[in-house]
Amino acid sequence: MTHAARSRGHSWSYTVTGRVRLVAGATAVVAVILLAASLWSDWTRFLANSLVFFVFTLTLGLGSLFLVTLEYTVNATWSVPFRRIAENLAVLIPISLILALPVLVGVGTLYEWTHTGSADDPILAGKSGYLNLPFFLVRFVLFFAVWLVGYRFLVEGSRKQDQVGNKSFSERASRFSPVFMILLVVTITFAAFDWVMSLVPHWYSSIFGIYLFVSCMVAGVSLTTLAATHLKMKGLLPSEVGPDHFYNLGALMFAFNTAWAYVAFAQFLLIWYANLPQETIWYAMRSASGWGVVSWLLVVVHFIVPFVALLNRSAKTSLKRLRWVAAWILGAHALDMYWLIAPSIRAEETVFSWQELWLPFAALAVGLLAWQWTARRAPLLPVNDPKLDAAFRFHL
Amino acid sequence: MTEREERFEIVGAIAIYGSPDDLADGILRARKEGFTRLDTISPYPLHGVDRLLGKGPSRLGYVAAVAGLTATVIAKTAQWWVSAVDYPLNIGGNPLFALPAFVPVTFELMVLFASLATVIGMLAVFNRLPRYGSALLRSRYIRDLTCNRYALVVEASDRRFRAETVREDLWDPNVQAVELLRRKKPSLYYKERVLSVPFLVLVIGVAIFSSTATRLVFRYGGEISPFSFMKYQPRLGAQQTPVAVPVEGTVARGYLPYPYKGQPEEAASLVNPLPITASNLARGRDRFTVFCQPCHGRLGDGRGTLTEAFPKAPTLHSRKVREWSDGRIYATLTEGQNLMPRHESQVSRDDRWLIIHYLRVLQRSQNAMEQDLQ
Fold first, then answer.
1. Is residue A57 within 8 Å of A96, Cβ to Cβ?
2. What are the chain B neighbours of A391 within 8 Å (beta carbons)?
3. Cα Rg of chain B, angstroms
4. Terminal CA-to-CA distance of chain B, rounded, Å?
């Protein structure tokens, strides 16, 4: 293919423009000022918000890494031109390891089970075999070890393939990915139990791990779509990557977002129907005046709007629309993570105040800085991937 | 006009190509020639060919959308009518119109309607099936087209189509052959195939055979039961005498036989053995609400919750009932009267007496006399 040959000749490297650097720096400065003020004014509230920020960032990274393993597992061709973007975004996993520091420092404040004596609470005493600080930390290390091993193998290996051109890496990755995918799902499930569900240690929901896993998927696909559409509109992706490729990203986004709604509703329906106090308490925390509004807002913002916006075929091929919807879903996902965590810690206090303002600035700053740091290190396309030509020829 | 031309009609033409790329060039050429009603036939789906043919996105999605929305409305309306209006049923204290609980049924019905409508719509509307046959099956190239050849189809309904010149119109160096597609006129097809004696005999024969065979299998072949372990487990049938029957003449603890069976007037002499206390009245009120209120009403005035579904029960404030002795009412409670069933086994002896205490309170409250006000 002559087109592919021409795209091959191009280096597809990414250079950071001064404007992006300026925006990233400015938001970072604002975020740090707001963060310091919030830290000084209310320590517990700051801890809750840093847990939200940590989980939010981590879900973005894990979702992106899952997208990479998905491509190798099902041997997809269309997604090869987007794989490097997802690989770059998976850098949010090691970054979230740093963001976990405040959570680890404040673990005693955030999690009730760390300081409740077994005599006071027989239920927590029964759970203490799992919910105890040493084992919690061991699991923390274990989860990140699994993720970082997968990150190192898939992402670093793919970058090396660009320089060396060894086709064997793709084969090894195809064998590695199905196993890693299972590990990823299991670790995300238990991480969800550990870091989010145990905030209300008496409450349990067996679907909770899937909820967070699907949230990861929604977040990862949306972030990859946002980056891909933006780069394409800036002319940084080859001309062969066209509407058919983006259609698939839109379809995945649509599918995972609907799956999120399905899981979220399944959890709600069972708890609502059984109407048992120890289960409904979690939703009761989220239906008190202010949080009730957020709950309904989530239904509209996270399900109805993206569903309608992505239903049409033309919506999934329009770069402009896709970029908007991807950004919208990311916002909805952020709200979802906030709704998932904050009421468990402070159901009675105000829903939003100025102490939360640092979150969006920090998210933007971390996202842009992470992208600048990682995107420079390799071309925006996996230029030596054996399936790249087939990917360029992809049509629906 | 030859006989063959009278019986057959031309429905289009196919141009045969050896590779998808040749076919793609051929499509563009044909469109440049002015052909609009084009289609392709290939051994496997060719991606991107819709765009080359100039076809817009399929409209099948709208069929699915309309069917899905219809199903949503039907499911929600039906569940609302059944569970909240026509036969209100309290399930675990949840609201009668339980929106979250109705979602799964709505969702399933939506998927069912949408998928059926999609399949039927695709076959019946867009593929125009069923048909008596396809002209393509008469083509000499049909075998190649399922193997290693690719065809461009031009339909005869195309305004640009001329049967005499179509060979030249579709010709280009890559074309391996151009063939006119003919099919028997549908009216002839119907007359000769469907109304023919052998076909009708076949249809009737199959009907007779399959119904006879079904009948015979069910009559003599025995029952086909994939899961019989529940049917053949050891158990008692309905109304069957239980294994452990009490020894004759014995009386169960806490239970005294009722001596005035069928003689309510004889029972009138019975005296209520239980004292009137606040807790006894509360218990009587509780039992009254459970067993009497559905027919006789909360106040005993005959306006119960079942009055529309069930023959109206009489008021308990009639002079007759007010003048009855406790024992006479006890007889009615125990043995029933007219449509009222016996309550001997459902309400314990003590509870029956307590209900009567509470009934007296009701009667007095509804028929207060002047001295009650002082």
1. yes
2. none
3. 41
4. 117
Q: Is A268 on the interface with B (CB under 8 A)?
A: yes
Q: What CA–CA distance (Å, rounded) separates A83 from A85?
A: 5
Q: Across-strand partners of A15?
A: none
pLDDT tens-digit readout, B167-212: 888 888 899 999 999 888 877 877 887 888 999 999 999 999 999 9
Residues on chain B touching A265 (C-beta within 8 angstroms): 100, 103
Closest chain B C-alpha to A396 CA, distance in angstroms: 5
Whether pTM > 0.95 for this model: the answer is: no
What kind of architecture, by CATH, is found in domain B264-368?
Orthogonal Bundle (1.10)
Residue B151, strand partner residues: B16, B41
In 3-state terms, what secondary structure has residue A239?
coil
Using alpha carbons, list the distances in angstroms from residue B355 to A268, B28, B267, B306.
43, 92, 17, 20
CB A241 within 8 A of CB A307: no
Please list the residues that pair with B178 across neighbouring strands.
Answer: B15
Could you report the predicted ipTM of this complex, rounded to two decimals? Answer: 0.79
Query: pLDDT tens digits, residue range B322-367?
Result: 888 888 899 998 888 888 888 888 888 889 999 999 999 998 888 8
Give the H or E element holding residue B179. strand B177-184
The C-alpha atoms of residue B7 and residue B186 are separated, in whole angstroms, by 10
Q: A191-250, pLDDT tens digit by residue? A: 999 999 999 999 999 999 999 999 999 999 999 999 999 999 998 899 889 899 999 999
The conformational region for residue B364 under phi > 0 = left, psi -120 to 50 = alpha, else beta, is alpha
- CA B96 to chain A, closest CA, distance in angstroms equals 12
How far is the C-alpha of B11 from the C-alpha of B200, rounded, in Å? Answer: 28
What residue ranges do the domains of chain B occupy? 7-198, 264-368
Is A273 close to B61, i.e. CB distance below 8 A? no
